[in-house]
Design a protein that fits this description.
By secondary structure, the protein is an all-alpha fold. Helices cover 65% and strands 0% of the residues. The chain is built from 9 helices and no strands. The longest helix is centred in the C-terminal third of the chain and has 32 residues.
């Protein structure tokens, strides 16, 4: 599987060496949206599987104490609702999507060795692949402007508090929070890329 994703990544990067036509740009958008949808569905399944293994009482406590507004990636300024999302420029939506994807590259690599979150092992390459794709699209929509890989030096704190040696209930709570935040962020990325793709295609109706 890793070789397949590496090949897809190399094919996508090859588009950097030539300007993308309108049809090529839409093709790249379609690929990015498909990959974001896949990550969102995977995040949803991982969260549901984890939650399904909790006792009724643990599930009730997790739902009670967890506030999704406290995800690490909330420091990335993004649209607050559907109306603001639809008003945002294509470039802004792409930039936010890039930063959200980037914010999960390190956590996904670290968590891949966790027994509880073993399904994270297939996530890092998918995230890197999507990040490269978004960067490729940005190169095609910003004439003469450096890509995010060249220009974005700031990085988010890598969920450092989640890597302490915890026990029992703390591990369950941290894992629950991390999976919930991952699901939330991948939903954002899917939404932003879908709107950006629609706006770029000049469709009349891009409502969510």
């Amino acid at each position: 599987m890793g070789q397949v994703f590496l090949l897809l990544t190399l094919l996508l990067v090859s588009d950097l060496v030539r300007p993308a036509s309108g049809s090529e740009n839409q093709r790249l958008f379609s690929i990015a949206v498909d990959r974001a949808q896949h990550l969102h569905l995977l995040a949803q399944k991982m969260f549901n599987d984890f939650e399904g293994n909790l006792s009724t009482e643990d599930r009730r406590q997790m739902n009670k104490i967890f506030l999704q507004d406290f995800c690490n990636s909330d420091s990335i300024i993004s649209p607050v609702d559907k109306h603001e999302t639809q008003k945002s420029s294509v470039q802004k939506l792409l930039h936010i999507s890039f930063r959200l994807v980037e914010s999960w590259e390190y956590p996904s690599q670290t968590l891949s060795s966790s027994l509880t979150l073993s399904r994270f092992s297939e996530i890092p390459l998918k995230l890197t692949d999507l990040k490269i794709g978004i960067d490729t699209i940005l190169r095609g929509t910003q004439d003469g402007i450096p890509s995010l890989e060249d220009n974005e030096a700031q990085q988010l704190p890598p969920y450092e508090n989640y890597y302490q040696n915890l026990g029992g209930d703390d591990n369950i709570r941290r894992s629950y929070e991390l999976l919930a935040c991952f699901k939330k962020d991948m939903h954002k990325v899917e939404t932003y890329l879908t709107v950006a793709k629609c706006r770029r295609s000049l469709e009349a109706n891009c409502t969510l």
